[in-house]
Write a structure and sequence with these properties.
It is built from 5 helices and no strands. It is elongated, with a radius of gyration of 17 Å. Helix content is about 85%, strand content about 0%. The chain is mostly helical.
Length: about 190
């Protein structure tokens, strides 16, 4: 994968964290930069670890399915992108208004980060079948997620309920596009 493809993948992977951070920011009372950065670092750290775990799992099985690697990566990305888009379109119930907290607890943020990074785990499995530098890719995904989640918290109180679902839809489209690009590149090389 090229650097541009890695960056696009990282941005796509960070969109669900961005959407979640918008929601978290929307529920806080005037979140400041310190709280936003704390949230971003938690999300980014977890998002950087999960593709490494997925990559290790995928690498263990790679010798059995090397002939199908491009199809596996493309199907995984298309599936995850589609799932993100469906989540983005899904209607959420409106909660009863209550007093907004100043910050979220670590466990709440970590649990949310793990939930939004499961797609990065599956992407890591797919990346095991490609010639990528997994450390660079994981760090790029983590850095993009840190920036996107931090930004999401800061702007979340203004536009979280509206933009949140569209950010996830956009992230899903990006993942599908990356999967299609991987498949087309492989099919182009085979021709």
């Amino acid at each position: 994968m090229t650097f541009i493809a890695t960056l696009i993948l990282a941005l796509g992977m960070s969109m669900d964290a961005f959407a979640a951070a918008l929601g978290k920011g929307a529920t806080l009372h005037r979140p400041g930069f310190k709280e936003a950065l704390r949230t971003g670092l938690i999300f980014g750290s977890i998002e950087a670890l999960t593709p490494l775990i997925g990559w290790a799992l995928g690498l263990a099985a790679s010798r059995y399915i090397m002939a199908w690697d491009h199809w596996i990566a493309s199907i995984l990305l298309a599936f995850l992108g589609g799932r993100m888009m469906m989540e983005g379109f899904r209607q959420t119930a409106v909660a009863e208004p209550c007093e907004a907290p100043q910050s979220h607890g670590f466990m709440v943020l970590a649990t949310t980060a793990v939930a939004t990074s499961l797609d990065a785990l599956a992407v890591g499995v797919g990346l095991a079948f490609l010639q990528v530098n997994i450390i660079t890719t994981a760090l790029t995904i983590g850095a993009a997620t840190t920036v996107m989640a931090t930004t999401g918290v800061l702007v979340g109180r203004f536009i979280g309920p509206v933009l949140g679902k569209w950010a996830e839809v956009l992230g899903g489209l990006v993942l599908i596009a990356v999967g299609a690009t991987i498949l087309l590149q492989h099919l182009g090389q085979a021709a």
